[in-house]
Design goal:
The complex is a heterodimer of chains A (443) and B (434). By secondary structure, chain A is an alpha/beta fold. Chain A has helices spanning 3-29, 42-49, 51-64, 82-102, 118-128, 142-147, 166-171, 204-212, 248-263, 273-281, 295-302, 337-350, 353-363, 383-392, 398-406, 408-420, 425-441; strands spanning 68-76, 106-114, 134-138, 173-174, 177-178, 181-186, 188-193, 217-220, 267-270, 287-291, 307-310, 325-331. Chain A is built from 17 helices and twelve strands. In chain A, the strands form four sheets. A five-stranded mixed β-sheet of chain A has the order 2-1-3-12-6. A three-stranded antiparallel β-sheet of chain A has the order 10-7-11. Chain A has a two-stranded antiparallel ribbon with strand order 4-5. In chain A, helix 9 crosses helix 16 and helix 16 (408-420) runs antiparallel to helix 17 (425-441). The longest helix of chain A is centred in the N-terminal third of the chain and has 27 residues, at 3-29. Chain B has 434 residues and is of the alpha+beta class. Chain B has helices spanning 10-23, 26-49, 57-60, 63-83, 88-114, 118-143, 146-151, 164-192, 200-226, 230-246, 249-264, 313-318, 345-358, 394-412, and strands at 153-157, 160-163, 272-274, 287-293, 297-302, 308-312, 331-339, 369-375, 380-388. In chain B, a hairpin with a 3-residue loop joins strand 4 and strand 5. The radius of gyration of chain B is 35 Å and the shape is elongated. The model of chain B has no long low-confidence stretch (mean pLDDT 84). The chains are: A alpha/beta (443), B alpha+beta (434). At the A-B interface, strand 1, strand 2 and helix 5 of A face helix 1, helix 2 and helix 5 of B.
């Protein structure tokens, strides 16, 4: 009788051990890798089917012998259309899955947080020593993150600078340190409806003529979205010494031009880009400025044969110079040595030409971040056009972005008031310049 | 009905990976180690201190180790901060310890003011599990996104996606709601009492009905929140009704009987019944009181040996029950006595009635009454009938009355005879017929 309880306890322990072991096996065995279907594009499938490519994977695998778990945090953008968000998520998943294929003993967990809480969550997690190893952030946030030690520099020996577009890398450099690797480039183009417009206007004059002939045109009244026209009047935000250099007179001319355009019957200045896109999709607007990342949506809604993509019109013979931004991959400042090696490898993988080309072709809208990318242009007809836009674009440096971000509300409000005629353009530009100078002086 | 899907453990698996990933970081491991050392040291110090604090032990016992833990964790936190390393987890451990301290202190205060033994029950069954769940949720939020984890689909059931959060709500949520319903009912009972008028036992039954109503309401709310299709629910219930009718007939019958008994008020917690009503083999005078009337069965405590009987509710519904507390709480008892044939019956009746009236536990209304019942073989037989309020006191009062009668009759010279028989022995010599 005395032996019974201990026997029962033994049985219970055995049962508990078996259950624990089974649970662990289930956790280890049911890998999430195979649970999601990968959107394999033509190019992706072609590369994966190439036996030579497979062979290279084996070589990399045997050489590096990486193992462990890696945590990647991405954002769910509130203002982004679900289709584009899904495409972005799929691209990231495809890349991390291919990384896992190359390194079978590596698991990459991708987690998505709303952009409204993303940076806060990252900051909070770091206080505990937790959080992601790799975060995907907007270019304009890189400086704030670096200033607050929320990201760490990428060791120079890891990155081969020649593999990347130099101006993109320059956007992630501060005091000689590289804080992010470009993952996605977003340029500003002119989208037009081919049913309404035979060819895109090359200059602002042509645009005005089209508008007068009944072609409805939408333009953005926001500061960042309308920077493209300022160089036409010799205006700029920062000079070559990377200091605020907003000339009141020249900017005043551009602002006045915009106000004149707004008075044209066929042109409308709008603040909300999403509404403008919706009017374009509905056929109520025939010409709008558009970011390259929204091209898949416009193509889907309007039809690829109807959608035309061109450079924004030149002004006074000077090509439009929109700003370029995008997404950067950054490293967490708190990682174990093994996680750091894995994170660096993942960064290189996600930015290597092969993987970038797959993303570019799947989106048919995104430029690869690499300096040399050679692939079948038929799969991405707009590539040449977007490359041209990129070459003419303005790429703000980290501290320049920082100055803009810190004064975002003031800049937008002042600019809007000037466009609306509520205050003089001189006053608005002085305010903006003063704020930018103050921020840059305090860094 | 066939719209189901296999179990999807991807989110739980990812959570596991994130946990392992976090533990791989030296800063995380260091903080966890420091926190564990602080808690272990606190327990050790508490054990060493225990003999020195016997007087206050019952007050301080749960607070001492937690207080020491908090102090050690705060010191460790300052140390980490001075070193410039991450100390969020140590802070979190200190915060949780502080919360536990407050819970324990609140429980001590509540117990002190209410003097209720139920405080410990609710602490064990409700408050501590909620604290553990809160800690688990907080830690989940640290290593992952709590919202994503709890909103992740686990499987599909009858066209409804069941998430991890839903599963927790259906299981732990329902369990907590049942305990909470009990607490709410007891709080109502404590606040409003059992009523100054009417029958307190009926009011007790009313509170039990409130509790069941709360449980039922909570269950429906939870099922509604999860979003299980009510049509499917109806179909399942209909399909199972045959099974219920056969297999669970007794359970359902007992449950229905319990509810009916409470509504009708025929039997309530605290009622005193004759145990021979439910068990023929019992002494016909053995009584017991209903200590608990549950969904399936009632618990009856016997006065004779304090043993407890779990009796299915159906028994009360189908059998004839003798209760002493249905509408009034008084009971009549009788004491029989015989006196010798030489005694004056009028005097005996007066003495017995006086004795009954003088006893403090015998009610004056109705008055105690003595009767000359029979001419016995060797005595004149009397009976004293009296009423008492405390039903369980019947045997004691009867015994006291018997003793007093003996003393009184001794004083008054009234003989209490014992049965006498005259035996005539017939021998063969005396019978010429043999």
């Amino acid at each position: 009788m005395l032996g019974r309880p201990s026997q029962a306890r033994k049985n219970k322990r055995s049962l508990a051990s078996v259950l624990a072991a089974l649970s662990a096996l289930t956790l280890m065995g049911c890998s999430p890798r195979g649970s999601e279907s990968e959107p394999i594009g033509t190019y992706n499938a072609e590369i994966n089917a190439n036996p030579l490519y497979e062979g290279r994977n084996q070589l990399v695998q045997s050489q590096q012998d990486l193992k462990g778990t890696l945590l990647v945090w991405t954002q769910r953008y509130q203002g982004m259309e679900p289709m584009l968000q899904k495409m972005l998520n799929n691209s990231i998943r495809t890349m991390t899955r291919s990384f896992e294929k190359m390194h079978p003993e590596v698991t990459v967990v991708v987690e998505e947080y709303p952009d409204t809480v993303f940076y806060q969550k990252h900051q909070q997690s770091l206080k505990y020593g937790l959080g992601a190893d790799v975060i995907l952030v907007h270019t304009l946030m890189l400086s704030s993150l670096a200033q607050n030690n929320l990201i760490k520099p990428i060791p120079s020996k890891v990155v081969k600078n020649v593999n990347f577009r130099p101006r993109l890398l320059a956007q992630a450099k501060k005091d000689g340190q590289l804080y992010g690797l470009p993952f996605m480039v977003d340029v500003q183009a002119l989208c037009y409806n081919r049913d309404h417009v035979k060819s895109a206007p090359k200059s602002l004059e042509e645009l005005k003529i089209l508008a007068n002939n009944g072609i409805s045109t939408g333009l953005s009244s926001k500061f960042l979205q309308s920077i493209w026209g300022a160089p036409g009047f010799g205006a700029e935000v920062f000079n070559s010494d990377e200091e605020p250099s907003m000339n009141e007179e020249r900017w005043g001319q551009w602002i006045e031009t915009q106000r004149t355009l707004d008075r044209e019957p066929g042109i409308v200045l709008m603040e909300d880009g999403q509404t403008m896109r919706q009017y374009f999709i509905n056929g109520e607007l025939s010409l709008i400025p558009c970011r390259s990342h929204v091209l898949p949506l416009l193509r889907e809604k309007l039809g690829s044969e109807k959608l035309g993509v061109a450079s924004l019109p030149s002004i006074n013979g000077i090509p439009a110079k929109p700003e370029i931004a995008g997404l950067m991959l950054a490293l967490s400042p708190i990682m174990s040595r093994r996680q750091e090696i894995l994170a660096q490898e993942l960064l290189l993988h996600m930015t290597n030409p092969d993987v970038q080309q797959i993303m570019a072709i799947e989106w048919k809208a995104l430029l690869p971040v690499n300096s040399k990318s050679d692939f079948n242009r038929h799969l991405f007809p707009e590539l040449k056009q977007l490359n041209e836009i990129y070459e003419n674009s303005v790429a703000f440096k980290m501290h320049e972005w920082n100055a803009i971000v810190r004064n975002f509300v003031l800049i937008n409000n002042s600019y809007k008031q000037a466009i609306n005629g509520e205050i003089k353009s001189d006053t608005a530009i002085q305010r903006i310049k003063k704020a930018l100078k103050k921020t840059m002086a305090s860094r | 009905m066939t719209d189901t899907s296999p179990l999807d453990l991807n989110t739980i698996q990812a959570l596991g990976f994130e946990l392992i990933h976090g533990l791989e970081r030296p800063s995380v491991l260091g903080q966890l180690l420091i926190s564990a050392i602080a808690i272990a040291s606190a327990i050790l110090v508490n054990q060493k201190l225990k003999p020195w604090l016997p007087k206050y032990d019952h007050w301080l016992a749960p607070l001492i180790p937690i207080t020491i833990s908090i102090m050690l964790l705060v010191i460790a936190g300052f140390f980490y901060r001075a070193l410039g390393t991450k100390f969020g987890l140590i802070n979190k451990a200190a915060e949780l310890a502080a919360l536990l301290w407050m819970i324990n202190y609140s429980m001590i205060l509540i117990k002190h003011f209410t003097q209720s033994n139920r405080v410990n029950f609710y602490k064990r069954r409700l408050v501590l599990p909620v604290f553990i769940a809160f800690s688990a949720f907080s830690l989940t939020d640290l290593i992952s996104d709590r919202t994503q984890v709890f909103n992740a689909d686990l499987f599909r059931l009858f066209g409804t996606n069941i998430t991890i959060g839903d599963l927790i709500l259906i299981t732990f949520g329902l369990y907590w709601w049942i305990i909470l319903s009990s607490l709410l009912t007891e709080f109502l009972q404590w606040s409003f009492g059992l009523g100054s008028t009417g029958n307190p036992q009926s009011n007790k039954g009313f509170y039990i009905l409130i509790r069941y109503a709360l449980i039922g309401l909570g269950s429906f709310v939870i099922i509604g929140y999860v979003g299980i299709n009510p049509t499917v629910f109806g179909l399942i219930t209909g399909g199972l009704s045959v099974g219920l009718g056969l297999g669970l007939k007794e359970v359902v019958s007992n449950f229905a009987s319990g509810i009916w008994l409470l509504i009708e008020g025929a039997l309530k917690p605290g009622d005193i019944i004759n145990l021979s009503s439910i068990d023929q083999s019992k002494d016909p005078y053995e009584i017991g009181f209903i200590s608990h009337l549950g969904l399936r069965a009632a618990t009856i405590v016997s006065y004779s040996d304090n043993s407890e009987r779990i009796v299915p509710n159906q028994t009360f519904f189908t059998n004839q029950i003798q209760t002493y507390t249905r509408s009034q709480n008084i009971i009549a008892r009788k004491v029989w006595i015989g006196v010798s044939y030489g005694s004056n019956p009028i005097q005996v009746i007066e003495l017995l009635e006086q004795l009954g009236s003088d006893h403090p536990r015998i009610l004056n209304t109705p008055r105690p009454k003595a009767y000359f019942t029979t001419y016995g073989e060797s005595s004149l037989n009397f009976c004293l009938k009296f009423w008492i309020k405390e039903i369980s006191d019947g045997l004691t009062v009867s015994s006291e009355i018997n003793c007093q009668i003996w003393e009184l009759f001794q004083d008054k010279g009234i003989e209490i005879p014992f049965p006498q028989a005259v035996v005539h022995m017939v021998t063969p010599d005396q019978d010429p017929g043999i």
